[in-house]
Predict the structure.
Amino acid sequence: MRAIPFLTRAKMTVNNDLLAEVADVLRSGPRLAVLTGSGISAESGIPTFRGKEGLWKEFRAEDLATPAAFERDPRLVWEWYDWRRGIIGTREPNPAHLVLARWEKRFPGFALITQNVDGLHRKAGSGAVLELHGNIWETRCTSEGTVAESPETPLPEIPPRCPACGALLRPNVVWFGEPLPAEILQKAYEASGACGVMIVVGTSALVQPAASLPLLAAGRGARIVEINPDATPLTAAADFSLRGKAGEILPAIDKLLVSGGAR
Ligand code: OAD
């Protein structure tokens, strides 16, 4: 991993020329990887974690998103996840998710890596999504490890139990202090190391190991495009920092790609 330079080398103002430049880079047909965070779902009405009204402003992660919290009070943890599932279940993918679903077909070798557990990439039609932090619509048996789809909201029983063995079920998500699913993380490292361009959308780039993926890509020579209304620790390492909303910027780039991008 390379060190983040002190001076930003990103081109920062979002204007049509900059969007056209990014579209040109993409038109050259690079191997494309995209890393998303909760900001991509903000325009779908799903709260982010660290923003003004972010979940971690109102709730303590230690009480709700750690193995110790679940051991202490599985009911409390499940009530919080059931509440979140209730919100997410009524939300739809926004134009940013939809563009990325189309790009899976447009770019050979395309890889979509997400930190989100909301399932909106899949709902938008993305077929191969590397869900680094799991999926809130799946449960995992705490005894047998069996993963099952869990679409029902609200849950009929809290905390839910495994229909096969009666043990507690847990949300199939990664909590603080837990390792990421090894196979998915490995694929994410491979995709990051192999891409020619990585677009990083809607993440504060504060949570490891996800935040290291763009640096791995950059270290291997990939160009980094960041889409975020705010600067992040990654901004300094980005070649293009597009300051704005994912649901506006990604469709604008897509339009340039589709139209042939006359400037
Ligand atoms: P954060 O809440 O830390 O960051 C969200 C980012 O999205 C911020 O940088 C915002 O500026 C940006 N953002 C907000 N609205 C946006 C929009 N319309 N378009 C583009 N960007 C926008 O969320 P994450 O980086 O996803 O992990 O957080 C990473 C992980 O920390 C999460 O997966 C979760 C959390 O704790 C676990 O629970 C394990």
Remarks:
- The longest strand covers residues 134-141.
- The longest helix spans residues 74-89.
- The pocket of 2'-O-acetyl adenosine-5-diphosphoribose is lined by residues 37-39, 42-43, 48-51, 54, 65, 115, 133, 174, 201-204, 206-207, 227-230, 232, 245-247 (CB under 6 Å).
